[in-house]
Amino acid sequence: MSLNIAQILQDDLITPMVRKTAYGLATTCILGAAVYAGYCVAAPEKHIIRQHRHPELNDQIEKVVDSLKITDDQLIHIMHILEEEMSAGLSPITHKQATVKMFPTYVRNIPNGTEVGQVLALDLGGTNFRVLLIDLRGNARVELTSKIFVIPQSIMIGDGRHLFCHLAECLYDFMLKENLLRTGICYPLGFTFSFPCRQEGLASARLTSWTKGFSCSGVVNEDVVKLLQEAINEKGINAKCVALVNDTVGTLMACAYKDPATAIGLILGTGTNACYIENLDKVGTWNSDYDEPKQVIINMEWGAFGDNGRLNLIRTKYDEEVDLSSINPGKQIFEKMISGMYMGEIVRLIILDLLQQELLFLGHRDTYGDYKTPLYNRGGFYTKFVSTVETDEGIKFSNTRRVLEDIGIHNPTYDDCAIVQHICRQVSKRAARLAGAGLAVLVNRIGKSDVTVGVDGSLYRYHPRFKRNMERCMETLVNKDVKFALETIPDASGIGAAVTAAAECRSGKGAAMVACVAGKPYLVNSIVSDEETADYEKINS
Ligand code: BGC
């Protein structure tokens, strides 16, 4: 514009009056440009915020977010790798080095809804521990009463004997309250123990490693059923553990009690894992009988997928950081990219990175380095915050503002909120797509036209988009001639342990065990609703 004015000024035809005005205009323009440039330098945040109006267009932010994106082609590649890892886990030649262990569970009879009886169940898988009394009434009807107990951090990382002693004490408390002690009845008990175990029978399982923040001493390589039974006997409790199941197996069994088309169990909670029904002839590591039914549930322990580096192509520096600062570095790589124990932490690390690159919270420089705020502390951004942020629709961001307030960012701008939501969405979407790809491998492998998947876990239940994102991705990856349905049943992992014990009795083995209670009707309370969200609240805390 100033160039045009200079040319105009050379024109002899211009009257002095016009020339004066033109000079004035030119000066104003030059001054204006200078003031604007100075303003941009002096107040870079305002300038950058304008770019942030469309976070998806901001190169630097998008570069970070892009590192989280996994294309369909990459997912297909990951599915192939998972299949290879599964074969390695199932073969006796490669099982030892395999990362995806594919443990046979000894659970072979799938319930058909006719199982009856009263069974106790213990459900240990995270910071909460639950004791249940389950009344299987046949016709797929279940009634239960239950109580949640907390596992203190000191017990999670303490001596293993204290852990089992604590479990027995909780069981004692529950049975006392429900008048089940000293009744002359030995109650059968199903134990849902949601950690990797090499099973040697239905009621015999050696822990191979701890996950999800547990590290009790003296338990790895030990038979956890034996440790539990010893603690139960020491307290003089009239209960006998007849079955141990992983939570994925419990979920599959509980769902199958209602829907016999169930062939897969999936957990998306503090940790993640899946199990499925496999033909015995594909299980090279199977070392028991080949009687009917010629099938066994395989506990995949897919959380360890990638522990040998095969997922490195999709890992980001944030995943590496989460892993390095965890209690089990190098282990549970797939789990650390998906599950609730780690999701909030991934988001926190990204936010912190953007803040350090001066791309976020620009109006909050005075609070930079306030290391006491949760934002700067490991675990300071809970996974439940990811769900809360993602429930915001529109431009008000009232939930996101509350969350940011909680982590120490007061009065965030619209752009701050939009960017934080964008990050949460990408992190949870990546997790849902990875879980969806894993599940697609199983659905395709089952070889039936209709497959029901029993799914449970706090992340799956409470995240507003996880299910939708996972289903969408599966629609592209599952073979076109296969129909799949995702089902969720309340209290599935505990009910499943009870159903497993009862299904085993139906098959004849251990029938005496359940018969001792089946004859004596026990009045169960109607379903006790204990805080459903308790586990979720505790994630990352
Ligand atoms: C454990 C699995 C469990 C999963 C979900 C993982 O950390 O290794 O055994 O099924 O968490 O609870």
TrEMBL record:
Pathway in which the depicted protein is active: Carbohydrate degradation; glycolysis; D-glyceraldehyde 3-phosphate and glycerone phosphate from D-glucose: step 1/4; Carbohydrate metabolism; hexose metabolism
Molecular function terms, GO-annotated: ATP binding; D-glucose binding; fructokinase activity; glucokinase activity
Residue span(s) of domain Hexokinase N-terminal: 61-257
GO BP annotations, alphabetical order: glucose metabolic process; glycolytic process; intracellular glucose homeostasis
Domain Hexokinase C-terminal: 264-502
One GO CC annotation: mitochondrion
Record field: catalytic activity: D-glucose + ATP = D-glucose 6-phosphate + ADP + H(+); D-fructose + ATP = D-fructose 6-phosphate + ADP + H(+); D-mannose + ATP = D-mannose 6-phosphate + ADP + H(+); a D-hexose + ATP = a D-hexose 6-phosphate + ADP + H(+)
Stretches that traverse the bilayer: 21-39
EC numbers: 2.7.1.-
Swiss-Prot/TrEMBL keywords: ATP-binding, Glycolysis, Kinase, Membrane, Nucleotide-binding, Transferase, Transmembrane, Transmembrane helix
PANTHER family per record: HEXOKINASE, HEXOKINASE TYPE 1-RELATED
Family label: Belongs to the hexokinase family.
Biological role: Catalyzes the phosphorylation of various hexoses to hexose 6-phosphate.
Protein name, per record: Phosphotransferase
Lineage: Eukaryota, Metazoa, Spiralia, Gnathifera, Rotifera
